[in-house]
What does this fold into?
Amino acid sequence: MNSIATYVEQLARMIETIYEDTLADTSLNRGQYAYLLYLHEHEGANQYDISRDLLIDKTTVAKALKKLETAGQIYRRTDPRDKRKVNVYLTSRGKALFEEVDKANQEIQQIFEKNVNPALVEQFTNLIEIFLAELDLKWCMIKNYKRDTSYSLAGSADIRKILDRGFYQIDANDQLFIERFGQYYLNWFKFTKAEDSGDIHVSDVRFHQYSDIILQGMELFLEFEEWYRANYIGTIYIPCVEGNIPLQKLLHKNGYYFHGYDVNENNENVYIYTKQFLDN
It folds into this structure.
Protein backbone atom coordinates (compact mmCIF):
# COMPACT_ATOMS: atom_id res chain seq x y z
CA MET A 1 0.00 0.00 0.00
CA ASN A 2 1.39 3.38 -1.03
CA SER A 3 2.01 6.00 1.62
CA ILE A 4 0.45 9.46 1.66
CA ALA A 5 3.82 10.93 0.65
CA THR A 6 3.95 8.67 -2.43
CA TYR A 7 0.48 9.70 -3.60
CA VAL A 8 1.21 13.40 -3.05
CA GLU A 9 4.49 13.10 -4.97
CA GLN A 10 2.68 11.39 -7.88
CA LEU A 11 0.01 14.09 -7.89
CA ALA A 12 2.67 16.82 -7.91
CA ARG A 13 4.42 15.23 -10.91
CA MET A 14 1.14 14.99 -12.83
CA ILE A 15 0.33 18.64 -12.16
CA GLU A 16 3.86 19.68 -13.17
CA THR A 17 3.44 17.80 -16.45
CA ILE A 18 0.18 19.62 -17.22
CA TYR A 19 1.84 22.98 -16.54
CA GLU A 20 4.77 22.10 -18.81
CA ASP A 21 2.48 21.00 -21.64
CA THR A 22 0.19 24.03 -21.42
CA LEU A 23 3.07 26.51 -21.15
CA ALA A 24 5.41 24.88 -23.68
CA ASP A 25 5.23 27.91 -26.01
CA THR A 26 6.12 30.45 -23.32
CA SER A 27 9.57 31.48 -22.11
CA LEU A 28 8.96 30.03 -18.65
CA ASN A 29 11.21 27.32 -17.31
CA ARG A 30 10.08 24.50 -15.09
CA GLY A 31 9.26 25.69 -11.59
CA GLN A 32 8.83 29.39 -12.45
CA TYR A 33 5.03 29.14 -12.59
CA ALA A 34 4.66 29.19 -8.82
CA TYR A 35 6.44 32.53 -8.53
CA LEU A 36 4.10 34.26 -10.99
CA LEU A 37 1.01 32.82 -9.31
CA TYR A 38 2.31 33.88 -5.90
CA LEU A 39 3.37 37.41 -6.89
CA HIS A 40 0.01 38.03 -8.53
CA GLU A 41 -1.67 37.28 -5.20
CA HIS A 42 1.05 38.89 -3.02
CA GLU A 43 2.27 41.94 -4.89
CA GLY A 44 5.32 43.46 -3.22
CA ALA A 45 6.29 40.35 -1.25
CA ASN A 46 9.91 40.11 -0.17
CA GLN A 47 12.26 37.21 -0.80
CA TYR A 48 11.79 35.79 2.70
CA ASP A 49 7.99 35.74 2.31
CA ILE A 50 8.25 34.04 -1.08
CA SER A 51 10.60 31.39 0.26
CA ARG A 52 8.54 30.81 3.39
CA ASP A 53 5.14 30.64 1.70
CA LEU A 54 6.17 28.59 -1.32
CA LEU A 55 8.32 26.27 0.83
CA ILE A 56 11.36 26.78 -1.39
CA ASP A 57 14.76 27.35 0.19
CA LYS A 58 16.18 30.89 0.12
CA THR A 59 19.06 30.13 -2.23
CA THR A 60 16.78 28.60 -4.85
CA VAL A 61 14.37 31.55 -4.58
CA ALA A 62 17.23 34.03 -5.05
CA LYS A 63 18.39 32.29 -8.22
CA ALA A 64 14.85 32.03 -9.63
CA LEU A 65 14.11 35.72 -8.98
CA LYS A 66 17.35 36.72 -10.68
CA LYS A 67 16.32 34.76 -13.82
CA LEU A 68 12.83 36.27 -13.78
CA GLU A 69 14.30 39.76 -13.38
CA THR A 70 16.78 39.22 -16.23
CA ALA A 71 13.88 38.05 -18.39
CA GLY A 72 11.97 41.25 -17.61
CA GLN A 73 9.15 39.47 -15.78
CA ILE A 74 9.69 41.01 -12.33
CA TYR A 75 11.31 44.09 -10.83
CA ARG A 76 12.46 44.88 -7.30
CA ARG A 77 12.14 47.94 -5.09
CA THR A 78 13.51 48.69 -1.63
CA ASP A 79 10.73 48.66 0.97
CA PRO A 80 10.22 52.30 2.04
CA ARG A 81 9.23 51.15 5.54
CA ASP A 82 12.29 48.92 6.00
CA LYS A 83 15.40 49.61 3.90
CA ARG A 84 16.70 46.11 4.68
CA LYS A 85 13.89 44.50 2.67
CA VAL A 86 13.49 44.37 -1.10
CA ASN A 87 9.96 43.91 -2.46
CA VAL A 88 9.21 42.04 -5.67
CA TYR A 89 6.61 42.99 -8.29
CA LEU A 90 5.43 41.62 -11.63
CA THR A 91 6.22 43.70 -14.71
CA SER A 92 3.64 44.07 -17.50
CA ARG A 93 5.36 41.15 -19.21
CA GLY A 94 5.18 39.14 -16.01
CA LYS A 95 1.48 39.92 -15.66
CA ALA A 96 0.85 38.75 -19.24
CA LEU A 97 2.67 35.49 -18.50
CA PHE A 98 0.65 35.11 -15.32
CA GLU A 99 -2.50 34.97 -17.46
CA GLU A 100 -1.04 32.00 -19.32
CA VAL A 101 -0.02 30.30 -16.10
CA ASP A 102 -3.47 30.90 -14.65
CA LYS A 103 -5.07 29.15 -17.63
CA ALA A 104 -3.09 26.03 -16.78
CA ASN A 105 -4.00 26.45 -13.14
CA GLN A 106 -7.69 26.73 -14.00
CA GLU A 107 -7.49 23.68 -16.27
CA ILE A 108 -6.18 21.58 -13.39
CA GLN A 109 -8.86 22.96 -11.08
CA GLN A 110 -11.59 22.12 -13.61
CA ILE A 111 -10.36 18.54 -13.91
CA PHE A 112 -11.07 18.11 -10.23
CA GLU A 113 -14.32 20.07 -10.18
CA LYS A 114 -15.91 18.45 -13.23
CA ASN A 115 -15.01 14.87 -12.45
CA VAL A 116 -15.08 14.71 -8.66
CA ASN A 117 -17.91 15.45 -6.24
CA PRO A 118 -17.48 19.07 -5.01
CA ALA A 119 -17.79 17.92 -1.41
CA LEU A 120 -14.81 15.58 -1.92
CA VAL A 121 -12.80 18.37 -3.57
CA GLU A 122 -13.45 20.63 -0.59
CA GLN A 123 -12.57 17.84 1.85
CA PHE A 124 -9.37 17.11 -0.07
CA THR A 125 -8.40 20.81 -0.01
CA ASN A 126 -8.95 20.96 3.75
CA LEU A 127 -6.86 17.82 4.28
CA ILE A 128 -4.00 19.18 2.17
CA GLU A 129 -4.00 22.37 4.26
CA ILE A 130 -3.84 20.27 7.43
CA PHE A 131 -1.00 18.10 6.12
CA LEU A 132 0.98 21.19 5.05
CA ALA A 133 0.55 22.74 8.48
CA GLU A 134 1.61 19.52 10.21
CA LEU A 135 4.83 19.27 8.16
CA ASP A 136 5.61 22.98 8.19
CA LEU A 137 7.60 22.99 11.42
CA LYS A 138 9.78 20.08 10.28
CA TRP A 139 10.46 21.85 6.98
CA CYS A 140 11.53 25.00 8.80
CA MET A 141 13.81 23.00 11.07
CA ILE A 142 15.51 21.38 8.06
CA LYS A 143 15.89 24.72 6.26
CA ASN A 144 17.07 26.57 9.39
CA TYR A 145 14.21 29.05 9.41
CA LYS A 146 13.54 31.12 12.50
CA ARG A 147 10.98 29.66 14.88
CA ASP A 148 8.62 32.64 14.60
CA THR A 149 5.77 32.00 17.04
CA SER A 150 3.04 33.99 18.77
CA TYR A 151 0.79 33.30 21.77
CA SER A 152 -2.88 34.02 22.38
CA LEU A 153 -6.21 32.65 23.56
CA ALA A 154 -7.76 30.52 20.81
CA GLY A 155 -10.85 31.87 19.08
CA SER A 156 -13.75 29.87 17.67
CA ALA A 157 -12.08 29.64 14.23
CA ASP A 158 -8.93 28.25 15.85
CA ILE A 159 -10.96 25.64 17.73
CA ARG A 160 -12.71 24.56 14.52
CA LYS A 161 -9.40 24.09 12.71
CA ILE A 162 -8.03 21.96 15.55
CA LEU A 163 -11.22 19.87 15.67
CA ASP A 164 -11.00 19.36 11.88
CA ARG A 165 -7.98 17.15 12.50
CA GLY A 166 -10.31 14.67 14.16
CA PHE A 167 -7.66 13.81 16.72
CA TYR A 168 -8.27 16.17 19.64
CA GLN A 169 -11.31 16.47 21.85
CA ILE A 170 -12.31 19.92 23.04
CA ASP A 171 -15.47 20.26 25.10
CA ALA A 172 -17.80 23.26 25.00
CA ASN A 173 -16.40 24.78 28.21
CA ASP A 174 -12.76 24.22 27.30
CA GLN A 175 -10.51 27.09 26.37
CA LEU A 176 -7.09 26.94 24.75
CA PHE A 177 -4.07 29.17 25.20
CA ILE A 178 -1.99 28.39 22.14
CA GLU A 179 1.44 28.92 20.67
CA ARG A 180 1.06 29.56 16.94
CA PHE A 181 3.66 28.74 14.33
CA GLY A 182 2.44 30.37 11.12
CA GLN A 183 -1.00 28.84 10.60
CA TYR A 184 -0.22 25.87 12.80
CA TYR A 185 -1.20 25.46 16.45
CA LEU A 186 1.97 24.20 18.03
CA ASN A 187 1.73 23.88 21.83
CA TRP A 188 -1.12 24.73 24.16
CA PHE A 189 -2.83 24.71 27.53
CA LYS A 190 -6.39 23.36 27.58
CA PHE A 191 -8.29 24.65 30.58
CA THR A 192 -11.60 25.68 32.15
CA LYS A 193 -12.21 28.68 34.36
CA ALA A 194 -14.06 28.36 37.66
CA GLU A 195 -17.39 30.23 37.60
CA ASP A 196 -17.10 31.68 41.11
CA SER A 197 -13.43 32.74 41.09
CA GLY A 198 -10.46 33.52 38.90
CA ASP A 199 -9.09 30.00 39.32
CA ILE A 200 -8.12 28.06 36.22
CA HIS A 201 -8.05 24.27 35.99
CA VAL A 202 -5.76 23.00 33.23
CA SER A 203 -6.75 19.61 31.83
CA ASP A 204 -3.99 19.19 29.25
CA VAL A 205 -0.59 20.66 28.39
CA ARG A 206 0.15 19.61 24.82
CA PHE A 207 3.51 19.78 23.01
CA HIS A 208 4.23 19.16 19.35
CA GLN A 209 6.52 16.20 18.67
CA TYR A 210 9.24 18.54 17.35
CA SER A 211 9.07 20.94 20.30
CA ASP A 212 11.77 21.02 22.94
CA ILE A 213 9.52 20.51 25.95
CA ILE A 214 11.82 22.30 28.38
CA LEU A 215 12.84 25.21 26.13
CA GLN A 216 9.51 25.86 24.40
CA GLY A 217 7.67 24.77 27.53
CA MET A 218 9.29 27.54 29.58
CA GLU A 219 8.21 30.08 26.96
CA LEU A 220 4.68 28.68 26.88
CA PHE A 221 4.39 28.80 30.68
CA LEU A 222 5.69 32.37 30.86
CA GLU A 223 3.30 33.60 28.15
CA PHE A 224 0.36 31.76 29.71
CA GLU A 225 1.07 33.19 33.15
CA GLU A 226 1.49 36.70 31.74
CA TRP A 227 -1.91 36.40 30.05
CA TYR A 228 -3.43 35.05 33.29
CA ARG A 229 -2.01 37.88 35.43
CA ALA A 230 -3.43 40.45 33.03
CA ASN A 231 -6.94 39.02 33.37
CA TYR A 232 -7.40 37.18 36.69
CA ILE A 233 -6.42 36.84 40.32
CA GLY A 234 -6.45 33.31 41.68
CA THR A 235 -4.81 29.91 41.31
CA ILE A 236 -3.75 27.82 38.34
CA TYR A 237 -4.17 24.06 38.80
CA ILE A 238 -2.17 21.78 36.48
CA PRO A 239 -2.31 17.95 36.48
CA CYS A 240 0.76 15.84 35.72
CA VAL A 241 0.44 12.14 34.98
CA GLU A 242 2.79 10.03 37.07
CA GLY A 243 5.98 9.44 35.10
CA ASN A 244 5.75 12.58 32.94
CA ILE A 245 9.19 13.79 34.02
CA PRO A 246 9.56 16.68 31.48
CA LEU A 247 6.28 18.26 32.62
CA GLN A 248 7.22 17.76 36.27
CA LYS A 249 10.51 19.58 35.62
CA LEU A 250 8.64 22.45 33.96
CA LEU A 251 6.25 22.74 36.87
CA HIS A 252 9.07 22.83 39.42
CA LYS A 253 11.12 25.32 37.36
CA ASN A 254 8.09 27.63 37.13
CA GLY A 255 7.34 27.57 40.85
CA TYR A 256 4.35 25.21 40.97
CA TYR A 257 3.81 23.29 44.21
CA PHE A 258 2.39 19.83 44.79
CA HIS A 259 -1.25 20.10 45.86
CA GLY A 260 -2.64 16.57 45.87
CA TYR A 261 -3.35 13.33 44.04
CA ASP A 262 -6.06 12.32 41.59
CA VAL A 263 -6.88 9.58 39.08
CA ASN A 264 -7.76 10.51 35.50
CA GLU A 265 -10.27 8.93 33.10
CA ASN A 266 -7.59 6.49 31.91
CA ASN A 267 -7.13 5.28 35.49
CA GLU A 268 -3.66 6.85 35.66
CA ASN A 269 -2.26 8.39 38.82
CA VAL A 270 -2.08 12.16 38.54
CA TYR A 271 -0.24 14.74 40.63
CA ILE A 272 -1.97 18.13 40.92
CA TYR A 273 0.28 21.20 41.03
CA THR A 274 -0.78 24.75 41.82
CA LYS A 275 0.54 28.29 41.66
CA GLN A 276 -1.18 31.34 43.16
CA PHE A 277 -1.38 34.77 41.58
CA LEU A 278 -2.61 37.21 44.22
CA ASP A 279 -2.24 40.46 42.27
CA ASN A 280 -1.89 41.70 38.72
Residues 4-115 form a domain with the Arc Repressor Mutant, subunit A fold (CATH 1.10.10.10). Strands lie at 45-46, 74-78, 86-90, 149-153, 175-181, 184-193, 200-206, 234-241, 257-263, 269-277.
